[in-house]
Amino acid sequence: MTEIFTNLELPPPFPDHTQLPEEDGTFVKNFQEHPQSIILTDSLGPILQRLHPDGQYAIGQDCGIYWREIEPPEKGAEAPDWFYVPNVPPLVNGEIRRSYVLWREFMAPLIALEFASGDGSPERDRTPLSYSGEINKPGKFWVYERIVRIPYYGIYEIANSKLEVYRLIDGFYQLLEPNERGHYAIAPLGVELGLWEGNYQNQNQIWLRWWDDSGNLLLTGTERAELEHLRAEQERQRAESAEQARRDAIPKLLEMGLNIEQIALALSLTVEEVRRSCGE
């Protein structure tokens, strides 16, 4: 019996992050979007270090999430302004991520945030994917909800200072109600998301910020350094005040009849320090 082997033409493998476009050649940015991403990433750092001591997580800032293979490739991607993916390596085969390819990772982001420059219509677009006639590009909201299935989705309208947060429940996004602090709980991270008015990178704006589940604002590295400096300065001033108070007490103790050795012991000073204060 003779076996006949036929050469089979196999389809090419799905592309990875190095074979897909990093951008689509357009931009719809404003001067707040870049620092807005930084303040979110910077202040969340200590939380992520505690949750991922092994460093296995990735944060995307305006990076493409590829969810289907199509031509041109950009039509198969959405690029949230900010997103966080737990339990994936920060690098892929030692290379910096150029995009996040869902069919290679099999791990959805936990949360995606969009900073809407307009009224948020593109971010709320629920247009489904249609195969009747020409294949359309579905709406961003529909892709995050039905395909990528991101558990938390936030839309921040910058011009209106309006924040909406959705949670994926039973396969559909449900609009969450804020808590008594006006924040939205992101339970898996143990944090809350809300709005904060203040100055960051020379801009007085209303920013998206994180709080812990007790309502304490999560600080950026610069804010933590400033706070530490203030604490150290206050401690120095307290120490100087205490030192001066002890020295001011020496004449009163002398009037009471205590000798230099007794005063030194009572005020935790050396005998020499007491003598200098007495002018001896």
Automatic annotation (TrEMBL):
Keywords tagged on the record: Endonuclease, Hydrolase, Nuclease
Secretion signal: which residues?
none
Q: Does the keyword Cell membrane apply?
A: no
Q: Name one GO molecular function term.
A: endonuclease activity
Domain (Putative restriction endonuclease): residue spans on this chain: 36-196
Q: What is this protein called?
A: Uma2 family endonuclease
